[in-house]
Amino acid sequence: MDAILILDFGSQYTQLIARRIRELNIYCEIHPWNKAPKTLPGLKGIILSGSPYSVRQTDSPQPSVNSFFGNVPILGICYGAQLMAHQLGGEVSASGTREYGRAHLKYINEANPLMRLLPEDSQVWMSHGDTITKLPAGAELICGTRDVANAGFCISEKKAWGIQFHPEVFHSTDGLQILSNFVVSICHCLQDWTPDSFVESTVQKLREKIGSDSVVMGLSGGVDSSVAAVLLHKAIGSRLHCIFIDNGLLRKNEFHDVLESYRNIGLRVAGVDASAEFYAALRGVSDPELKRKAIGKSFIEIFDREAHRITGIQWLGQGTIYPDVIESVSVSGGPSATIKSHHNVGGLPDVMKLQVVEPLRLLFKDEVRRVGASLHIPDNILNRHPFPGPGLGIRILGEITPAKVTLLQEADAIWIKGLKDEGLYHQVWQAGAILLPVQSVGVMGDERTYDQVVALRAVSSTDGMTADWCHLPYEFLARISNDIINKVKGINRVVYDISSKPPATIEWE
User: Fold this and answer.
1) Strand, coil or helix: 59
2) In terms of C-beta density within 10 A (0-12 exposed, 13-18 middle, 19 or more buried), how is residue 58 classed?
3) Alpha-carbon span 151 to 205, nearest angstrom
4) Out of 72-86, 88-102, 198-212, which region has the weakest mean confidence (pLDDT)?
5) pLDDT (tens digit, 9 = 90+) per residue, 128-142?
6) Exposure string (b/e) for 305-331, b if CB count within 10 Å is 16 or more?
7) Is 493 helix (H, G, I), strand (E, B) or coil?
8) Model-level pTM?
9) Which residues are catalytic?
């Protein structure tokens, strides 16, 4: 299998480079710039990412670019391009004004393989405070913009290319073509990394890794743990033991419905109702992070207890995917800020003294769904909206009580059923209702009410890293609002969240 190595210098866009290359059915891996693997099977090319640093800073990442040249082609993006120019005798200077946002390519050298099939005035996305004011010796200019004279260059002798813009982001309209030019035309990668090939190679690796051992795995009802479990089941069969814990924070009727679905696809699953234990652990807790930790701690304790009822377990299966890792500790240990803790990253392995197996750790959410489709996982599991590990615990702002959970479950059930009935469910990536810690005045009949407020959230996304609020019909939202207020006693006001990520997050806590 051919592969591309992406060296991460801390850019917020690094994971997008990987996503775009995988869209081309080519395997790639992200590694920190200072922890590059000595060998990567099938290596055909290297990409140097952007960075929040300036190459002019004394504390900036400064690996020797000469060590990258020779065997495979190199593409430097933004900081990566400036690093090459800076170390090879060019000049990198502070821009007169910060170059951020849309720009259009000029004097494109279409004869250069990286610029092949790019139209004049192709829109690209700039995000840098430095600019390359002088190209290094032997470099050929391949494109520029109105404000950036040296937007792209090529050093043919070293099989190296550099571009100061970001082809990986959505706003670079021909960015995928540029990346395709590099990985397909220049690196000669075969586009054979497909969901079917991933399943085949992963199952084989799981069999080799696990051998004749047994695995225990906690299921959440979500897509990630479900696909990971089916992959493990395909590899080791009945030696996979699954546990599905009801934390009392699931959606209405979800525990029984999901448990039945799992059993229908042949998984060996034990269902555990532990809602009372979770409610006890959450009593009096209002801080979002403390709630997550309380839920996580309770889950670990209960899961550990239930897992010990099973004998002969050597491995712990987890449904960790790439965005979990990125948002919890930053991509591959880079300098990105931690947004929030994640329920399925860390914790269990140290407590349970088991080896960990994570079949989906390097996949994005959309890739997980494609792998699930290849495994013929039923639509009611595969295409369920993502649901946070702490469940309704982070959709009830403030302290959690059983009464609040029941109230939110009823409102949420009306919201989700409405989306399905209207044919909108699959147009939305994730939806949910949030119970706000405020009450508002209302009038129902001739009576004054002072009841709870519910916010409805619906976003479109591909992997959860970015998201936009869904523009749903006003008439539909009005009907849902009316249904919730009339049918859920204790709620007298419904609002709709029109915030995008960033700057907001998908969940409110």
Assistant:
1) coil
2) exposed
3) 42
4) 88-102
5) 889 999 999 999 999
6) ebbeeeeebbbbbbbbbbbbbbbbbbb
7) strand
8) 0.78
9) 78, 166, 168
